[in-house]
Every structure is written in structure tokens, then in C-alpha cells.
Amino acid sequence: MKTVFVTVGTTRFDELIETVTCSEAAKALKARGYKRLLLQIGRGSFVPDADSCPELKLEVFRFKDSIAEDMKQADLVISHAGAGSCLEALGAGKPLLVVVNDKLMDNHQLELARQLHTDHHLLYCTCSSLTETLKTMDLSVLQPFPPGQPKTFANFLDKVVGLK
Q1: pLDDT digits (tens, 9 = 90+) for 106-132
Q2: What is its EC number (predicted)?
Q3: What is the CATH classification number for the domain harbouring 68?
Q4: What is the extent of the structural domain holding 27?
Q5: How far is residue 73's CA from residue 90's CA, in Å, rounded to a whole number?
Q6: How many domains does the chain have?
Q7: CA of 87: how far to CAs of 72, 118, 161, in Å?
Q8: Whole-angstrom Cα distance, residue 9 to residue 80?
């Protein structure tokens, strides 16, 4: 079953969960052949029920010891722009759509998403443009992130946040 896995990591990002489960976003996913939507909602207070997204089979959880298997089984990962979540999805070799939380102060997430997008490793958007991005995204333009180079990623992060 073609699956989208959505993760917010350990954060609270209710706006992403609300947006990805809205009728328009669900229809856009269904139109692309996705049938299952697996949500990791972290510390969020918004918990969608199965009826909120009738176009897709909806499953929700807060935390697991590891989400590696969920990412491995996903056909698309939609994630907040946390470095750990991005690295895990890119390391799993999955198409990645990052949703930047533009409400955060000192938004380093945007810088990270923008650079990884420039390097063709992911697509990114905000909650306000998520549905349109789901309708128009071209995952074929994405290139794999070089595996097994955590030092390269750490150096990249240092550069993005201005430590180098």
C-alpha cells in the first residue's frame, strides 16, 4: 500500500498535522496514488481521528523507540525541518518533502531546507503552501544524499547555522 509517513520528531507542530490531514491535502495525496497516511505527532495537541481523512487509511502515534522502519516502508516522507529527521529520511533514501515551521524565531530550519533543496536532496514548503506542493511536486528531480558521511552533514549544518 503506497504510504506517506509524516514526522514532527519530538516537537509540537500541530499546524503540519492539521494541514496534511485536511480534505484538500488528502485528496492531493490520493490523486498521486497514496492510500495510507502514517502520522507521528510528537508532543502535539491535535490528534486527528480516522474520520477526518476518509480518502486515506490514517494511522497516528506520538513516539516510538525508532521510526526507522516507518521511514523504510514509506514511499514519501513529509517531515518538519529538524536536522535529525532530515538526516534520517535522507539516509533511508526516501523522497523527502520538508515543511518548514515559519512561526519559529531565528528560523535555521529554513536555511537547512533551502540548502538541501538547492542540492536537489529534498523539496520544501510551508504549511500554507503544502497542499499546492503536493499537487505539483516532481519527486523525480531529487538526488540521493551521499550515504555514510555524517561528518559532511555536520560540517554542512555548522555552515548553515553560521558556526564556520
Answers
A1: 667 788 888 889 999 999 999 999 999
A2: 2.4.1.141
A3: 3.40.50.2000
A4: 3-160
A5: 14
A6: 1
A7: 13, 16, 16
A8: 7
